[in-house]
Amino acid sequence: MEKCCCPQYMIRISAKDFRLTKSQKKLLKKVHRYLSTGEKPWKGLEKVKPNSAGSVSVDMETTHCKPIMALTDGVSQERPAVPFCDNNDAHCLFTEIVDKNKPVEKFTSERKPPIKGSGPNSEKPKCGKAKQRRLERKRQKLAAQANIDPSEVILLPKKPAEKTIEDFLNGPMPDQPAHRLEVRLVRSPPGQQSDEFSKSFDTTFLVYHRYQTVIHQDPDDKPDRQQFQRFLVDSPLQTGHQGGKSPHEYGSFHQQYWLDDKLIAVGVIDILPSYVSSVYLYYDPVYSFLSLGTYAALREIAFTRNLMAVDPDIQFYCMGYYINSCPKMRYKANFSPSFLLCPKTYTWQPVENCRPKLECNAYSRLDETNAVDEDGDVDLASVAVLFKHQALTYSLYQMLCPNRKQDEAEVQEYSRLVGRKCSRSILLYRQSSK
What we know:
Layout (H helix, E strand, L loop, with lengths): L8 E6 L7 H16 L10 E3 L5 E3 L6 E2 L2 E4 L2 E4 L3 E2 L46 H17 L18 H5 L11 E7 L7 H5 L1 H14 L10 H9 L17 E9 L2 E10 L3 E9 L8 H19 L5 E7 L15 E4 L6 E3 H10 L23 E4 L2 E4 H7 L7 H18 L2 E3 L4
Parallel strand pairs: 11-12, 15-17
Antiparallel strand pairs: 1-12, 1-13, 2-3, 4-7, 5-6, 8-9, 9-10, 10-11, 13-14, 15-16
């Protein structure tokens, strides 16, 4: 990692302790509002842009503008279009067209003296907020019960219970919502594919192709079916249960988001015995206004928490790799609590403690303690190798091939990367001489 220009750090989130930020709560409310009422997020400032002459140009189609008619000497003339709002449009954008050559008149107003007798009655108590009045009545009541002075009564404010991610996702919907969103989990690996995945394969690929060409600006011929199959469908993981704990099978899956029976996004995930790993996400760019990248990550965190309720071994949601210098990846650190894997000690460190170090150096030791990687001390003789279809230790392999001491440096580097435990459980392939 120290030789890379952009070191990649593994990042994971504690599903049990996950806390929503204010922006994430706003996003969940935005999607819920769209599903309930069909109301789209509005960004009016993007629709009005000054042209080269300095005047304002308005997009008639996207800002719901209609021309207005003005009477000049009894003849109707069409004036420049300005945004028009009716009762059915929840979002309006008002643009004022100002003639720069015409002097702006200042508006001034004189303050009129109050009418006699219209002021507050000094004999009555001052007005206050209803909440404060209720607290004062409660203080008086408690003081009377305890026969003490009201000033001695201390009322501790009640902290409202913080809403969880499930509260936002499972919020009440109207009987006839504007849109219906369905999330389907389908098996994707060849030979293990579910019928739902096979039937929707063509639709899934079209969404992927549209995402790669529009969002990532790939040429039209680059994201073909073979590349899609190799990248997001083929998987070495075997689908199956482990101990019958989890309600879902382990392995590779596609989490499909269907909006009104139309596929708009797909999240590729791996369900493993200890965590859920996010592999990739692609979506229809037409629905970018829903911030589907962050929304899908929140959905996958909620899915991990759902699995954790029946299988306590699944505690983490892995978001792949984090590159601090890459703007497209820094959003991963906004999920709390997040942890980065230290490349020296292989311990998980809070991301808020790691970011200052990564701002100074792209590659850095994240663990501030004197801890060492105990699993990194590997006895080279005990490394497992595969030679001529037989599992051997490296010491026995050296005895059989005494002239192959030149690969000792390669085996030593391999054992240092995978660690003591993996070096004894994974077979390192050694090619036989011809």
